[in-house]
Specification:
Helix content is 40%, strand content 21%. With 226 residues, the protein is an alpha/beta fold. The protein has two domains: 116 residues, Response regulator (Rossmann fold, 3-Layer(aba) Sandwich), CATH 3.40.50.2300; 96 residues, Winged helix-like DNA-binding domain superfamily/Winged helix DNA-binding domain (Arc Repressor Mutant, subunit A).
Length: 226
Amino acid sequence: MSRILIIEDEEPILMALEDDLTLEGYDVVTAKDGIDGFERAKEEACDLVILDIMLPRMDGFEICKKLRQEGVLTPILMLTAKSQEVDTVLGLELGADDYVTKPFSPRELLARIRALLRRKFPFRQGLDRLEFEDVEIDFRKYEARKGGQLVYLTALEFELLQFLARHRGEVVSRDDILDAVWGKDEYVMPRTVDTHIAHLRKKLEGDPSEPRYIKGVRGVGYKFVG
């Protein structure tokens, strides 16, 4: 049974999430403020953290940042009441694995949860390491280095990069990427692929605005050419 920590201060949302996830068979623990949530995320053996952004005592951005700095790799699904792209982008840059904007449907949230939990399992066989320019990726150890320095990638970013590298030189469509990385049964918007590609470029490319390795093909998709 997977254990999920919900960090949410709005009582109606917290209770609804707890009820829905319990009915789905998950073991659920909760926290209503940022500091309590941060401590639980560090100490509880959880498989997933559902993290609201607007929290008392410590906001979700700070929680996400501090958890990653302390080496906590538990998948994080961020909840935001704001639709501005800057909030979702900042969350992903700080180490969140995915996000859902309020109001959200229970079906969409459960799909995102299942997708993140599925990524806790080992990568598919076929590509253990990847090197290009000054970048070294060890998919088995979930380690990425650029210029010898560790670079933090989320589990989803590792899987996305591995999929592109396994199809080196081939153009893969957004739909193909969604099916392979997120799963055919999951509800994810195609633009989500663009967001995660942008983050991979920012972390790994020398000049993200002129990518040499993770290239886009207008109207089709992406390809890895390293």
